[in-house]
Amino acid sequence: MHAGTRLLGFVVCVVLAAGCGGTSSTATTSTPPTSSALFVTADAENLILQPGDVGSGWFAIPKDTHAVSLAESMKGDSVSLRKIEQGSYRSGYQGLYTDGKKDGVLLGAFTYNDPAVALQVADGWSAQTATQITHASLLHPSTSIVGDRVSAWQGETHEGRAMVPVYVVMWSHGNAIGGVFLFGNKASAAQAYRIAAAQDARLTAA
Question: Which residues pair with 76 in a beta bridge?
Fold first, then answer.
C-alpha cells in the first residue's frame, strides 16, 4: 500500500481527471508489537470496502482499482523487508474511489501467511509513508480500529496547483494489513477513522 502512497500525487490527479470538477515523522502505535490470532483466508479483493460503503455518491476509478501483485507491493521496500514479504505474501488489492467533487480515497488490503510478517511489513510501510506526506504530523489512532499496530497522521498533498489535506491510517490485524489514504478539501480525521474502522470490520468478518 505504501507504493500507492508514493503515487498519491498521481492518484489525486486521476481523481481530478475523472470529472471531480516536508517534514517527515514516524508512525505512532496504539498497542505493543504483538500480533493477534486473526487469520484471514479470503482473497484481498473480497476484503476491500465498496464505494457505497465509503459514502453516498462515491464511485471507483476502474483503472486504479485492481489486484496488487507481490512485485507491486514491494516497490520501494528495503532488501530485508522484501525477503520476508517474498516468502509470506498471499494477496493484495487496492481501490481508488472519488465522490465526484475532488475528494478521494485510496484503500488497500493485503494478506500474508504469517501474522508476524504482516506486522513487520506494516511497520516498514508506515515509516516510509510518513516521509512522503508534506508537513506530516502524528494523530492519535482511533480506538474504533481493532488492530495489532495502528498508525495515523495528517499532512498535505497536491491537488492540481493547490495543496489539500490528506489523512492516512494504516494498521495490521492478524495476518492482514489495511490502509486508508483520504484526501481533499472536505477530508477529515474523523472521516478517515470511520472508513478505517469499517475496513477493519471487513477484515475481521472475512
Answer: none
Grid cell locating 58: 462515491
CA distance 26 to 12: 23
- Per residue in 37-62, pLDDT (tens digit) is 789 999 999 999 999 999 999 999 99
* CATH at residue 169: 3.40.1000
**CB-side neighbour CA atoms (13 Å) of 4:** 29
Q: Which domain holds residue 98?
A: 2-205
- How many domains is the chain built from? 1
DSSP string, 30-65: SS-S---S----S-GGGTSPPHHHH-TT-EE-GGGS
The structure's pTM equals 0.82
Taking the C-alpha atoms of residue 181 and residue 3, their distance in angstroms, rounded to an integer, is 12
